[in-house]
């Protein structure tokens, strides 16, 4: 449904040194899936998502929506194709002097949608976002979450095949963020809309994404299913993002001290293994003493991941056998403090 093929975006600089915001980036989003792009400020996330509907034209590469290469279209054909792509933003972009109803209706009228159909669509999508009773209210009378719901209804009213989300929850408190994410899941499930979002918040990826891309300095440095990245992160930046939502990080000093006797191990459990008493079995079978340092369970859209950081005390032989046993049970094992 969405495909970026070797996209590079370079911004000219008056100081003489051009800025490469995206460098040979390729992504592919299948119909009906939710993909997320995560990175720190300045990583290139916003440029990437603006290239999807050609709000920014790539310096190199191709952009495909539903099999059509947007970079080859005339202005008129591009305008028509963009109607397949809805977009929501961090700051809502509502008309302050227009009611909720008119904020959704005005773009439809400008597109030439018949009056009767305009009313039908406005009420249909206000109902989907649970704001029917606010149709006569003005933006100043709404909370941040309600404003974002209006923006989502406005995007949906054009009945797109794709929805782009540009940091749509960044200005919202955690509870409101969760409600908006639940709404996006509902839209994806009930309307079949493909969603591509950008964020700097790992909890957004955790809650709704099927697949994730990690971007840094304009480069895609890691990608995979959400479960893969949560269980087997490779890049330091990915691990830093994971540390923001799970108690994964211990100080190097503490790890070095503990490694003087036994080993400090990160264990990652997936699916049914999260409920198995594997540490108890290790204690009984291999005579090692596990001391749990940190532990948590993370619920993803498509599964459950458990994380334990454990200090295993015992002879080197016993510890190695216990680690082999855990690996055989499908547990990801990472020794900490090993250079």
From TrEMBL:
<dbReference type="GO" id="GO:0016887">
    <property type="term" value="F:ATP hydrolysis activity"/>
</dbReference>
<comment type="similarity">
    <text>Belongs to the ABC transporter superfamily.</text>
</comment>
<dbReference type="InterPro" id="IPR003439">
    <property type="entry name" value="ABC_transporter-like_ATP-bd"/>
</dbReference>
<dbReference type="GO" id="GO:0006865">
    <property type="term" value="P:amino acid transport"/>
</dbReference>
<dbReference type="GO" id="GO:0005886">
    <property type="term" value="C:plasma membrane"/>
</dbReference>
<protein>
    <submittedName>
        <fullName>Methionine import ATP-binding protein MetN</fullName>
    </submittedName>
</protein>
<keyword id="KW-1003">Cell membrane</keyword>
<keyword id="KW-0472">Membrane</keyword>
<dbReference type="InterPro" id="IPR018449">
    <property type="entry name" value="NIL_domain"/>
</dbReference>
<keyword id="KW-0029">Amino-acid transport</keyword>
<feature type="domain" description="ABC transporter">
    <location>
        <begin position="2"/>
        <end position="242"/>
    </location>
</feature>
<keyword id="KW-0067">ATP-binding</keyword>
<keyword id="KW-0547">Nucleotide-binding</keyword>
<dbReference type="InterPro" id="IPR050086">
    <property type="entry name" value="MetN_ABC_transporter-like"/>
</dbReference>
<dbReference type="Pfam" id="PF00005">
    <property type="entry name" value="ABC_tran"/>
</dbReference>
<dbReference type="GO" id="GO:0005524">
    <property type="term" value="F:ATP binding"/>
</dbReference>
<dbReference type="InterPro" id="IPR041701">
    <property type="entry name" value="MetN_ABC"/>
</dbReference>
<dbReference type="InterPro" id="IPR045865">
    <property type="entry name" value="ACT-like_dom_sf"/>
</dbReference>
<keyword id="KW-1278">Translocase</keyword>
<dbReference type="InterPro" id="IPR027417">
    <property type="entry name" value="P-loop_NTPase"/>
</dbReference>
<dbReference type="InterPro" id="IPR003593">
    <property type="entry name" value="AAA+_ATPase"/>
</dbReference>
<dbReference type="InterPro" id="IPR017871">
    <property type="entry name" value="ABC_transporter-like_CS"/>
</dbReference>
<keyword id="KW-0813">Transport</keyword>
<dbReference type="Pfam" id="PF09383">
    <property type="entry name" value="NIL"/>
</dbReference>
């Amino acid at each position: 449904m969405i495909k970026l093929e070797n996209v590079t975006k370079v911004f000219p600089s008056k100081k003489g040194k051009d800025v490469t915001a995206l460098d040979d980036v390729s992504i592919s989003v299948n119909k009906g899936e939710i993909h997320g792009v995560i990175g720190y400020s300045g990583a290139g996330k916003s440029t990437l998502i603006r290239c999807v509907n050609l709000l920014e034209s790539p310096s190199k590469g191709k952009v495909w929506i539903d099999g059509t290469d947007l970079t080859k279209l005339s202005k008129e054909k591009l305008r028509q194709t963009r109607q397949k792509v809805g977009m929501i933003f961090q700051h809502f972009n509502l008309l302050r002097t227009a009611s909720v109803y008119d904020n959704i209706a005005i773009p439809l009228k400008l597109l030439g949608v018949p009056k009767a159909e305009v009313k039908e669509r406005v009420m249909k999508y206000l109902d989907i976002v649970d704001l029917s009773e606010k149709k006569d209210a003005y933006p100043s009378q709404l909370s941040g979450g309600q404003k974002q719901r209006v923006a989502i209804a406005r995007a949906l009213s054009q009945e797109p095949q794709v929805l782009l989300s540009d940091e749509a929850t960044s200005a919202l408190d955690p509870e409101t963020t969760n409600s908006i994410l639940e709404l996006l899941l509902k839209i994806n499930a009930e309307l079949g809309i493909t969603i591509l979002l950008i964020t700097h918040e790992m909890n957004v990826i955790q809650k709704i994404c099927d697949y994730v891309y990690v971007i840094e300095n304009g480069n895609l440095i890691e990608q995979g299913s959400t479960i893969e990245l949560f269980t087997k992160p490779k890049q330091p930046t990915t691990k830093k993002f994971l540390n923001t939502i799970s108690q994964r990080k211990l100080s190097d000093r503490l790890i070095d001290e503990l490694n003087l006797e036994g080993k400090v191990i990160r264990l990652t459990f997936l699916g049914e293994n999260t409920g198995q008493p594997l540490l108890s079995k290790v204690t009984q079978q291999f005579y090692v003493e596990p001391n749990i340092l940190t532990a948590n369970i993370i619920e993803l859209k498509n599964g459950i991941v458990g994380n334990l950081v454990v200090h295993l005390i015992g002879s080197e032989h016993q510890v190695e056998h216990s680690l082999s046993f855990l690996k055989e049970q499908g547990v990801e094992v990472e020794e900490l403090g090993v250079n």
